[in-house]
Amino acid sequence: MSDRKEFRDLATPEAAREAIDDLDLSPAPETVPVEEARGRVLAERIDAAIDVPGFDRASMDGYAVRARDTFGADEADPTELDLVGAVHAGAKPDVTVDPGTCAEISTGAVMPDGADGVVMVERTEEVGEDSDAESGPDRIAVRTAVAPGDHVMSAGADIAAGARALGPETRLTPREIGLLSALGVDEVPVRGKPRVGIVSTGDELVRPGEDLDSSRGEIYDVNSTTIAAGVEEAGGEPVLYPHAGDDYDEMERLLRRAADECDLVLSSGSTSASAVDVIYRVIEERGDLLLHGVAVKPGKPMLVGRLDRGGSDAAPGSDRTGESAYIGLPGYPVSALTIFRTFVAPAIREAAGQPEPATATVEGRMAVGERYGEGRMRLMPVGLLDLNDGESPLVYPVDKGSGATTSLVEADGVVAVDPDTEYLDRGERVTVQLFSPDVRPPTLLGVGEDDPALNRLLDRLENPRYLPVGSREGLRRLRDGVPDAAVVAGPTDRDVDAVDLGEWTREWGIVVPKGNPDDVTGLADLVDGDLRFVNRPTDSGLRRSFDDALGDLAADRDASRGDLTERIDGYELTVRAFESPVRKVIAGDTDAGLGLRETAARLGCGFVSLGEQAVAVRAAPDRVKREAVAELADALDDLDNLLVDLPGYSRKSRNDP
Amino acid sequence: MSDRKEFRDLATPEAAREAIDDLDLSPAPETVPVEEARGRVLAERIDAAIDVPGFDRASMDGYAVRARDTFGADEADPTELDLVGAVHAGAKPDVTVDPGTCAEISTGAVMPDGADGVVMVERTEEVGEDSDAESGPDRIAVRTAVAPGDHVMSAGADIAAGARALGPETRLTPREIGLLSALGVDEVPVRGKPRVGIVSTGDELVRPGEDLDSSRGEIYDVNSTTIAAGVEEAGGEPVLYPHAGDDYDEMERLLRRAADECDLVLSSGSTSASAVDVIYRVIEERGDLLLHGVAVKPGKPMLVGRLDRGGSDAAPGSDRTGESAYIGLPGYPVSALTIFRTFVAPAIREAAGQPEPATATVEGRMAVGERYGEGRMRLMPVGLLDLNDGESPLVYPVDKGSGATTSLVEADGVVAVDPDTEYLDRGERVTVQLFSPDVRPPTLLGVGEDDPALNRLLDRLENPRYLPVGSREGLRRLRDGVPDAAVVAGPTDRDVDAVDLGEWTREWGIVVPKGNPDDVTGLADLVDGDLRFVNRPTDSGLRRSFDDALGDLAADRDASRGDLTERIDGYELTVRAFESPVRKVIAGDTDAGLGLRETAARLGCGFVSLGEQAVAVRAAPDRVKREAVAELADALDDLDNLLVDLPGYSRKSRNDP
Q1: Hey, what's the torsion of the CAs at A566, A568, A574, A577, to 10 degrees?
Q2: Burial letters for A494-510: b for 16+ Cβ neighbours within 10 Å, e otherwise?
Q3: Packing angle between helix A452-459 and helix A627-637, nearest 10 degrees?
Q4: Interface of B with A in 383-442 (CB under 8 A)
Q5: Burial of B177 (0-12, 13-18, 19+ CB in 10 A)
Q6: What is the pLDDT of residues A600-648, one digit of tens each?
Q7: What are the pLDDT digits (tens) for A362-381?
Q8: Using an 8 Å Cβ cutoff, are B312 and B283 in contact?
Q9: Which chain A positions have a beta carbon within 8 Å of B463's beta carbon?
């Protein structure tokens, strides 16, 4: 029960939604030029101010006639009419069609006085003395009867002045823009875009593009740009306020300015408690805190309130009065985007008059079972995999609350799991709220080792997702049935039922500084020398080959492997990706690292080869027939091109021993 | 066979598609700031240039420790460590954690030297002499053991320098923008937007917002703005070139300039043959005509070609060489948009690297049977009606090739009907290519009389479509089973099974100029006097009441109605909408018109009442339970508000006789 206690004062998700619904984010309507109106929503009904067409208009090329003159005419017994002139589109008729006469007319031209119908040119023939002369014919034989109004679009027949053309709340797509243009409308009243101010509150945050001082623990500000893009997508106008750093007076000034200039102010949780204190203080002094914490994972740090306007040095022209809405988001990027997607984006859309896009949610089925039971709603970040088998996509949980920014692109959206749901079964139907209506679930999911040749392979595929979890973890996941394929480097203990799609080898060894200043010649130098080393994690295939080589060396010396690893300074120090040890070497943090000949060569380091290892792409047997997997296999058939210019790489035929 | 002959030289739709695929519309990649990159498509793979995080980072608030110091600690037997300082996020650690010591640490802060794990604050207690003093505690009791790395995110653990972050062709949504920001990337290489020049070629076309001279047959240019919006939607950058009018040298100059400045030049068919001649001449002199006419209705006038670049007075900075693609579209707005949607938009998307949105097509079922058999593919404009009954939406053909711009908003998309298909059955499944991925099928379809109170009613509904086809045609369509409801004014002969949802009455009569200069007092003045009159069409309920009144007058005079109508000057002259006759009166084109007291009053005319007629909203019996129809009925319950301030309108209860 102790875990539940802390949620006692938290608002329910429904209460949070209601509090946000009660905020007034709606900006005043505005008038925009039609050419900028695509995607906007009409603020009011548009009635036609003119008749379209504005005149009786020929709708065929032919001859304008008095219909009565053609009565009785047919192929056998044509009627002849005197040709008195011609009328072209865009010109004022300078003829009158009297009884017994006709005038040549082009599609779109004004019907001349007297005429009430058009005979299509195909049903006429030029006759008379001058029919071959340059001056043209003087008589026209009409071989059909027409009724008054035939092939004539009368004035206002398309749309008449005063008629309802487009209703309020109509979203303007190209065709509505076309209709507005037909009516001569060149600017339209549309719903305003809510201005949404985004205030950064973390001392450690640096704007992308600026220099980062990692020794001070600085990181790039992810949430401001992510949320700004989300605001824009939802139909709002994001305004990024400058960083206040750790100057709390400045932060307060910025919050007040944002309130004065915007309909909604968003901040995302700072890890600095004092920054949160400033926000509290500003809201309490000049505003209302409506709720503070929501019983939803990850919404605990969420704040909802109002900020009074007035008194700031707001930008000129900002004449807003009253209050601005305020919502505080969690700090972790996936959490911030999750709460934004679930609670804030719908409010912005509503204020902008924009409907939720049909692609904002998809139905899926759980690819694995998932246990849960914290007694509050969970917004579970999930990845999707579209098997294109006519079924809804597979759904698997991805983020474990680590705050990783990579989860942003590994997760496609969130599933709202009810507080009472303790277990989601494999195969269970769930609704996924996508992080963006533009998110397309990948059609291929790979897991396993990271490798430069693999990166090239992935570049050739359409919309793959690859999670570089290492060879061992990759095989485990393949066995558990979610991914299509695993990429496995080096030897492996795991016996997983899989189909080999292709394989290459890569040369691995010890990466040392350029020129090999410590004269490293092999593994023994790491064990016996005084070198600082950096390793790869145990899930990595490189590590497995390294450990096997150490085992061989230990056997040669009648020692245990543990005896040797104890003597390697840095054996336990592991870094994540294939380039990471090499970069440590370059940075001078270490004397040697586990790596590939390719990476050493590319980044200008020395390299001591310890051997070659196979890298195999292995598919789940039940996925081999999928089109995306077949494309992967096809791309692997072009191995020579994939491996070209990669030092230490070579082709390994599937039939090689 | 004669009809087929003319298609002998036309390209097949497949050949047209291939010719367009062969055109090179792809612009060079460009670099854009991340904040403007949403919706763009990466031109190349993005690898991480830095480790994220760039340092070993505490992922919990607590104490940074040497994990080894905590081994064996538990609730019963805590370990005490000396507190040597504190590290905050965004600050450089100024302490070292030696054996037996710890440092307070905030989430996100840099791990101080010596420490390799974090104990959560919840599992610790402040102890020692100074625990209550202002200087803070000097010792911390740790009640749990932690392993090295616990609650620490190591440098590069999120994403490591050198790792593949985003693949080429990734569409950038908020989450990808977040990942790019985490990597410090503030500008990205993206696929360029194809520049698409739009050249207007009709003498009669006037840009919206400018003055229109209807007597010269001028109309507003619909296609330029419609296609420009479509280009933008497909990921291109539209460039509208100024009108050349009928100056053919100028038109040639513009075409060449557009070719020099753009990747693709579009023109839409002019009704003027000479304009087409200029296009031909320019393409033949400096380019290639690849195909000329496509065997698809309405694609006959379609042109595909290339225009050589060079020699024009192109805008400075336009350094394109080689060729520009050229496509000529038909002239009717719906035809132009249809051909654009089917052939051109996919090519622009492809060149921009944009996938076709999932909402670009929908599956539907034919609401009526449709016969066809011209021996070429038909791109049939259709309307949709989403019954929200779990089935796919109803599909019905709408445009009969009239060139009406209203078809733009009455049609939601097109169905490609195979040349061999002679009949589409009612209920048959069809795929509808929507005119825009943003098109939302209406949820209510009404047909019938036009009426000012009805316009207000429609404004209160969400996404209705109403076709003002008149009472008689409305009832016919209701009987045929497509619409949900018909609005019927005045008496009717048709006996259609329908449910009355609500009803009001409106006063109708003769609209005359302000002050009634001809002293009109009733119907007899139209018959016996010398007045010019303007009528409404026979489908209109107003016309039916007018004819009935004339019938009564004829009976009084022992004459036939025809005897009377023959004597009304303008009886056969009909105009489309309820305001149209009033506007004719105001313009001085006529002395009297058939209309409503409401319209006469609103537009400042005189009015001679001839009676009241009921306007009834009648629903198809099988649609009454639909939510959208229930909303219509609900809105009708608020009739008093709908009718307020409408002169001549009154409520008619459903129970009134």
Answers
A1: -140
A2: eebebeebbbbbbbbbb
A3: 120
A4: 402-406, 408-409, 411, 435-436, 438-440
A5: buried
A6: 999 999 999 999 999 999 999 999 999 999 999 999 999 999 999 999 9
A7: 999 999 999 877 788 999 99
A8: no
A9: 169
